[in-house]
Structures are given as structure tokens and as C-alpha cells.
Specification:
The chain is α/β, with parallel strands linked by helices. It folds into two domains: 188 residues, Rossmann fold (3-Layer(aba) Sandwich), CATH 3.40.50.150; 57 residues, rRNA adenine dimethylase, C-terminal domain (Helicase, Ruva Protein, domain 3, Orthogonal Bundle), CATH 1.10.8. It contains ten helices and nine strands. A seven-stranded mixed beta sheet has the order 4-3-2-5-6-9-7. Helix 4 runs parallel beside helix 6 and helix 7 packs across helix 10. This is Ribosomal RNA small subunit methyltransferase A. Pfam families: RrnaAD.
Length: 259
């Protein structure tokens, strides 16, 4: 087949650095029988070495041209191709009733990485661990500490649900075409159910969203109609604070105190 041309609308930047590829596959450290799903296999840079360690691999791909290439290259008994958008994919369907959990891996398209992380967080109970190549700026936000400019809604929601490790920095030259940003590899391990202490997670998510809706405003403004001045006082939280100054535990305390 002719050379595949990367498509901007799918955010395609193909990984070509063999050392980085080896580092990712070693980090995943899958066993032969693990249920592994790769998001956006592209030209197979990770798919090939993963399949050498696995009995079977699932991939999610939206580009029909790439799907044809994958079908010609791999047999269905080794590779199951799920055609479609990872943003709407039901990851629970790959792990029906299994206690082992999914291993999810991918060089994620930069243009959908944040909404995809939120989507995947909803399937945390079905996941063993996840390894993703992301824009470095996104990883900085994921692992940011309170009181820093990078700490935001993404930080709170992902840190609540996952233990995260920044594993590796990856330069632009590791990709084709070469992106204009640096990348990084991050691992996400779901927290145990007993560690998730928000009594109403929908309320918790809505609270965090409201708090960071206008970052420069004080919490008393962003949470107006949600938390009263007396509520701030009872919880020991300054109403003049800004959203990034509170910790994940602070947001859990506020959400649990709301009626």
C-alpha cells in the first residue's frame, strides 16, 4: 500500500522513536493473557511490540484507511479492531465481569486528549492501569499541585480517581510529522473504591466545574448559590480564596457538606 499521510483532523502524529516505543511497552508490562486495548494504533508502532507479548489485542481506530491496513496486516484471532471514536467507546464492554481489569494504552491525539481523559475516568472501575503519550502541557496539568497555575479541574478530577506517575519526557523528533509541542508518558492507576470518599460524585464533579469556571474570581463568587458564607466558615475555607488554592480533599469536604 502507498504511504499513509497523517491527517490533521484526527490529530495524527505517529511515534517513530524505537527507544521510546520500547520504554512504553516495558512500562505497560503486560502478561500474555491480559486484556489490553490500544487507542489509536496508527501505523502499528506500539501494536507490533504489544502483540509479541500478548495472545490478543483490542484496538480502537477512527481512520478507515488505517483500519484497512490493520486488517491486511493482522489476523482477527490476534487483533480485534473496533472502528469508531474513542470518545464514545464503551470500555466496560471489553471487561464484562472480569476482576483483572483493562490495560489501556495509546499515543493520544492532542486535539481530544482532555475530553478523552474525562471519558476514561468514567470507566476507572473497569481498568487495571493506563499508559498514555500526551502533550507535556496536559501531563503538567494532570499532576499539578494546589497553589500552582497548572492546577485546575483536570487535576482535581483525575487526582481524585487515579494515582498518576509522570514516567518519561518525549521530544517532538520522536514523531512523524514532528509536532510543535513536547510530549510525555504518564501512567494512571485507579484508586481503590474505599479511597473514593465523595458521597455524591455527580455533585463533586459539578462543584469542581463551578469552582474553576472563572479562575480569576474568588470562590465566594464562583460558588455563589452553592456554598453560603456560613458554609465557608464551618469548613474553614476562606471565601476569598481562588479555586487553585484548594486541595482535592477540600473539594471532597465541600461536596460532602452540601445538602
Amino acid at each position: 500500500m502507498s504511504k499513509h499521510v497523517a491527517r490533521k483532523r484526527f490529530g495524527q502524529n505517529f511515534l517513530i522513536d524505537q527507544q521510546v516505543i520500547a520504554d512504553i511497552v516495558n512500562a505497560v508490562a503486560s502478561r500474555r493473557t491480559d486484556c489490553v486495548v490500544e487507542i489509536g494504533p496508527g501505523l502499528g508502532a506500539l501494536t507490533d511490540p504489544l502483540l509479541k507479548r500478548l495472545d490478543h489485542l483490542h484496538v480502537i481506530e477512527i481512520d478507515r484507511d488505517i483500519i484497512v491496513r490493520l486488517q491486511q496486516r493482522y489476523s482477527p484471532d490476534k487483533l480485534t479492531i473496533h472502528q469508531g471514536d474513542a470518545l464514545s467507546f464503551d470500555f466496560a464492554a471489553l471487561n464484562p465481569g472480569s476482576a483483572a481489569g483493562l490495560h489501556v494504552v495509546g499515543n493520544l491525539p492532542y486535539n481530544i486528549s482532555t475530553p478523552l481523559l474525562f471519558h476514561l475516568a468514567g470507566f476507572a472501575s473497569h481498568v487495571f492501569e493506563m499508559h498514555f503519550m500526551l502533550q507535556k502541557e496536559v501531563v503538567e496539568r494532570m499532576v499539578a499541585r494546589p497553589g500552582t497555575s497548572d492546577f485546575g479541574r483536570l487535576s482535581v478530577m483525575l487526582q481524585y480517581r487515579f494515582v498518576m506517575d509522570w514516567l518519561l519526557d518525549v521530544p517532538p523528533q520522536s514523531f512523524d510529522p514532528v509536532p510543535k509541542v513536547d510530549s510525555a508518558l504518564v501512567r494512571l492507576i485507579p484508586r481503590a473504591p474505599e479511597d473514593l470518599s465523595a458521597r455524591d460524585e455527580t455533585r463533586f464533579a459539578a462543584l469542581v466545574s463551578a469552582a474553576f469556571a472563572q479562575r480569576r474570581k474568588m470562590l465566594r463568587n464562583n460558588l455563589k448559590g452553592i456554598l453560603s458564607e456560613a458554609g465557608f466558615e464551618q469548613l474553614g475555607i476562606a471565601p476569598t480564596a481562588r479555586a487553585e488554592e484548594l486541595s482535592v480533599d477540600d473539594y471532597i469536604r465541600i461536596a460532602n457538606a452540601l445538602q
